Amino acid sequence: MDDLASKSVLTTILNRLFAMEKSTDQRFQVRRFDSYGLEVLKVTLDQEDKVWTIEEHRRNKQYKFDDVDLVAIEIYDLLFDIQHTF
Questions:
Q1: Which domains can be identified in the chain, with CATH numbers?
Q2: Can you tell me the distance from the alpha carbon of 53 to that of 8, in angstroms, rounded to the nearest whole number?
Q3: pLDDT digits (tens, 9 = 90+) for 47-73
């Protein structure tokens, strides 16, 4: 992936995460990220505790973060791995 495409993907991810932070309709905000039409991961933000959880479906693992930038990087890396596996 070239540098411009990488920035575009990362910007899209960050925009979705920032929207989760801004949303106030529910305590738990959930977004799903997919690649090639398959759900790769699910991200949940606990608005009360400010804890982000990434559920990676491929390896059946969960990761917890307290920083939106780290969440964005992890999502980018997981999507990148999927796209370069096939």
A1: 3-83 (3.30.720.20)
A2: 23
A3: 999 999 999 998 999 999 999 999 999
Structure tokens at 10: 């990362």
Q: Which two tokens stand for residue 45?
A: 């933000």
User: pLDDT tens across 7-18, in order?
Assistant: 799 999 999 999
Closest CA to 41 of 81, 8, 69: 81
In the prediction, which pLDDT does 84 show?
A: 82
User: What is the DSSP secondary structure assignment for residue 59, as one 8-state letter?
Assistant: T
